[in-house]
Amino acid sequence: MDACTLGDLLDVVGGPALRLHAAPAGQTAPVTEAVLYDGRTPFPRTPGALLLAVGVPAAQAGPLLRAAADAGMTGVVVRGTDGPVAEAEAHGVALLSVAEDAAWHHVHLLLASAVTAGPAASAAADTGLGDLFALADAIATATGGATAIEDPRQGLLAYSTVAGQPVDEDRRQGILGRQVPASAENTEQYRRLFAADRPLRLPALSGADLPRLAMPVRAGGETLGSVWVIDGGTLAPDAEDTLAQGASTAALLLLRTRAARELARHRGSDLLRRLLDGTAPDAPTAAARLGVDGPARVAAFVLDSAASVPDAERTALRLLDVVRLQCEARYGRHAGVLVDGVVYAVLPGPGERHRRLAEDIVARAGQALRVPVRAALGETVPGADGLANSRADADLVLRVLDAQLPVATVEEVRARVTLLRLREVMGESRELRTGAWRRVLAYDAEHGTEYARTLVCWFGAGCDMAGAAKLLAVHPNTCRYRLRQLQQHAGVDLDDPDERLVLWLQLRVLAGLSAATS
After folding, report:
1. Percent of the chain, pLDDT > 70?
2. Do residues 307 and 372 touch, judged by C-beta distance below 8 A?
3. What is the distance between the alpha carbons of residues 126 and 112, in angstroms, rounded to a whole number?
4. Nearest to 250 by CA among 211, 219, 281, 284
5. Strands of 342-348's sheet in order across
6. Looking at the DSSP assignment, which residues form a beta bridge with residue 299?
7. d(CA 22, CA 90)
8. CA–CA separation, 428 vs 426, rounded Å?
């Protein structure tokens, strides 16, 4: 397994929790473990470690940086933001900081979990859940009661399988549905439990149920879940102490699993970003790591630019979560990425159901975020090498969406996106921007005539005078007169089919005129 790097660590627990102030060796420097500094014991010799400067004020951490460099450590973590950056640079040691009021034991637990997660994140995540089942069995064996480990929303994460221990219907239903059955009595018990700081004995909720011994699982001030032991009347005398120790171990495992998942998600996002911008060195291999093998298309989701969003960046991140959740529900482990306010996802397989999924995401996201959301789907491509092109399609489709058309595939709006691209290409070329169309528009602007509109309607009617007159709501003779005058005053040769074609393209694409809206 590849070593965790400083960059990996920051990806998982960076931001407000952990700030980087200096990294002389770069963010690819390996991090092997997190070590607590203890001035009463010999200085640890652990190459690649992060040293947590317990009891050392940030401004006075210079000697510690020098000692860490001599020991081959990667960096030092201080509390507060006034650490000696210059000395860190001079000694080649990374300097990081946590909040002034952060508890060192919490910081150590968090960093140790993230380091243990390592780059093989998805495997670590699965192992973490397996470890939870093993922990549930260990607690059940030591306490004498069937054990369950839950998340903060009462979802069942793991349960014991020790034979012969009494169970009740609530446990059976929880295991079958992976969720604790909801009831007013249950809600009250959880309220009491999450307010406690030690194991709590809770009575049976009905005559058919059994009482419980429960303990919240916390890391620092954050509640990560809870551990429940059924009390069939034969619990061990030290069951409360055993449960408290088990809850502490569960906290470490849950943090490790979460860190692994976050790291896996970040790596997946980075891989997806490279696929979409065409910089992945081996696109098929990268796509396979994301679970995409064969035909796929890119979907792009964006907040409605016309809507008022107080915190657009935060809302876009929430949109990313919605897209990931919905895609994972359909395709399993799935990567999504936020780039310049647009959320991208790769939808594998044939495209028959892709539009329905996009519509569902738009509806759910709009309801959850209270902001209209739009979705664009690029062309389905045969393999990973075409994903960058599918992303380019999706970006174009986004530009032609509106309130009346919030979701569309590139196939549905092919004409509109083609005209959009033509406008961009023609607008960039001097040769394509010049010509008779400018003389026509200039003459209309100077004399108040409608020659440009007449031309577009005539072209739109297939050069049929009666059809053009109907679009203009005038007599055919009026239309015929305007075209003769146009040729005389603007120097347009309408008998030349090539000039007619170029003139139509320029008026339709560059001037944005059409027979339907003129």
Report:
1. 92
2. yes
3. 18
4. 219
5. 336-339, 342-348, 296-303, 373-377, 407-409
6. 345, 377
7. 10
8. 5
Buried b (16+ CB within 10 A) or exposed e, 405-432: ebbbbbeebeebbebbeeeeeeeeeeeb
Nearest Cα neighbor of 331 from 290, 282, 297 is 290
Contact (CB, 8 A) for 214 and 200: yes
With a cut of 90, say whether residue 279 has pLDDT above it.
no
Pairing relationship of beta strands 407-409 and 373-377 according to DSSP bridges: parallel
Tell me the mean pLDDT in the region 142-157. 92
152-189 residues labelled b (16+ CB within 10 A) or e (exposed): eebebbbbbeeeebebbebbeebeeeeebeeeeeeeeb
Q: How far apart are CA 49 and CA 39, in angstroms?
A: 17
Predicted confidence (pLDDT) per residue in 314-349, tens digit = 888 889 888 988 888 787 767 788 888 999 999 988
Token representation of residue 226: 């809870």
Task: Write down the H helix ranges in 84-168.
Answer: 85-91, 104-117, 121-143
| Strands 94-98 vs 296-303: parallel, antiparallel or unpaired | unpaired
Nearest to residue 219, comparing CAs of 105, 127, 121, 78?
A: 105
In tens, the pLDDT along 417-453 reads 888 888 877 777 777 777 888 888 888 899 999 889 8
Sign for the CA dihedral angle at 491, 496, 497, 499 comes to negative
Single-letter residue type at 239: A
Look at residues 10, 92, 113, 21 and name the one whose alpha carbon lies nearest to residue 58. Answer: 21
Query: Do residues 272 and 344 lie in contact, with contact meaning Cβ atoms separated by under 8 Å?
Result: yes
User: 186 and 153 in contact (C-beta within 8 Å)?
Assistant: no
* Residue indicated by tokens 């406690």: 196
What confidence category does residue 122 fall into, taking pLDDT thresholds of 50, 70 and 90? Answer: very low
Residue 166 near residue 211 (C-beta atoms within 8 A): no
Range scoring the smallest mean pLDDT among 80-94, 217-231, 238-252, 272-286 = 272-286
pLDDT mean across residues, the chain: 85
The structure tokens 């003769």 sit at 484
Return the closest-CA partner of residue 304 out of 376, 253, 254: 376
Token pair of 279, please?
């910089």
Whether 260 and 125 have beta carbons less than 8 Å apart is answered as yes
Is this prediction's pTM over 0.70?
A: no
Question: Pseudo-torsion of CA 357, 381, 406, 273, nearest 10°?
Answer: 90
List, for residues 259-271, the tens digit of each pLDDT value.
766 666 666 777 7
Going by pLDDT thresholds of 50, 70 and 90, the confidence category of residue 308 is confident
Angle at 264 between CA 258 and CA 270, to 5 degrees: 135
The structure tokens 């003129």 sit at: 518
Residue 206 CB: number of other CB atoms within 10 A? 11
Q: Distance between CA atoms of 91 and 68, rounded to whole angstroms?
A: 9
